[in-house]
């Protein structure tokens, strides 16, 4: 059973709406690393509603990722597009972490610390980051979901989300593909209604 969430039926878009400035202008930008480096993705736990500020502070070095959903909301006198983080309270960073780099990041305003797993810095797999990019960069609906550690695996077999893998679950809402980030114990789900997929 999925957790109640304002993210339900929310859709993600790549790039800002014309005439509107994105809250996270560099959240999905590329950043080159030399071939002799081995940058990894990590998750930062940050102060609530500080995703934008931390993203601006860290900006290009290291590379940051804040997967967001863009939602058009109606107010009394106007419509407004708002950006809401997929994982509130977290920012992903990609870097070759030397002790000095780690200290500089930890001293950034709003940063609580790196997410750890079994006492060590938790690396987020590149493939998972790739899935988040795909979901954020297309018109895909997703919802917050209870954390799922494992289960039968499936892969989307066509469309813009082709290749995205996760745990296949079925509930009263139908079949879903759940993508989990183990160190954060967070999951999101994609509806598989009308989507071609294969079990792996």
What integer value in Å does the Rg equal? Answer: 17 Å
Number of helices: 3
Which CATH-level-2 architecture? 2-Layer Sandwich
How many domains?
1
With strands numbered from the N-terminus, the spatial order across the biggest sheet is 1-11-15-14-13-12-16
| Poorly predicted regions | 1-37
What oligomeric state do the depicted chains represent? single chain
| Name of the CATH class | Alpha Beta
Q: What does the largest sheet look like?
A: 7 strands, antiparallel
> Structural class of the helices, strands and pairings?
mainly beta
Concise summary:
This protein has one domain (10-199): Alpha-Beta Plaits (2-Layer Sandwich), CATH 3.30.70.
Per-chain topology:
Layout: E1 10-11, E2 40-46, H1 51-58, E3 63-65, E4 68-74, E5 79-85, E6 90-95, H2 99-106, E7 111-114, E8 116-117, E9 120-121, E10 123-124, H3 126-137, E11 141-145, E12 153-156, E13 165-171, E14 174-181, E15 186-191, E16 197-199
Antiparallel strand pairs: 1-11, 2-6, 2-7, 2-10, 3-6, 4-5, 8-9, 11-15, 12-13, 12-16, 13-14, 14-15
Could you explain the architecture of this structure?
With 200 residues, this protein is mainly β. It has one domain (10-199): NusG, N-terminal domain (Alpha-Beta Plaits, 2-Layer Sandwich), CATH 3.30.70. The chain is built from three helices and 16 strands. It has a seven-stranded antiparallel beta sheet with strand order 1-11-15-14-13-12-16, covered by helices on one side. β14 (174-181) and β15 form a beta hairpin. It is globular. The protein starts with 9 loop residues before the first strand and ends with a strand. Mean pLDDT is 81; it is low at 1-37.
């Amino acid at each position: 059973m999925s957790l109640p969430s304002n993210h339900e039926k929310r859709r993600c878009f790549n790039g800002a709406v014309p005439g509107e400035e994105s809250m996270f202008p560099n959240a999905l930008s590329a950043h080159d690393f030399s071939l002799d480096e081995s940058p990894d993705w990590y998750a930062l736990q940050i102060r609530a509603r500080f995703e934008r500020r931390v993203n601006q502070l860290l900006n290009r070095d290291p590379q940051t990722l804040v997967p967001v959903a863009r939602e058009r909301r109606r107010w009394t006198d106007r419509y407004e597009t708002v950006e809401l983080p997929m994982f509130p309270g977290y920012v992903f960073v990609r870097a070759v972490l030397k002790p000095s780099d780690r200290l500089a990041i930890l001293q950034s305003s709003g940063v609580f610390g790196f997410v750890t797993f079994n006492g060590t810095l938790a690396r987020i797999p590149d493939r998972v980051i790739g899935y988040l990019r795909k979901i954020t960069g297309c018109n895909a609906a997703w919802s917050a979901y209870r954390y799922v550690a494992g289960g039968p695996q499936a892969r989307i077999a066509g469309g813009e989300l082709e290749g995205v893998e996760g745990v296949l679950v079925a509930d009263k809402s139908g079949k879903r593909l759940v993508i989990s980030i183990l160190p954060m114990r967070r999951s999101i789900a994609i509806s598989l209604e009308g989507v071609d997929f294969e079990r792996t």
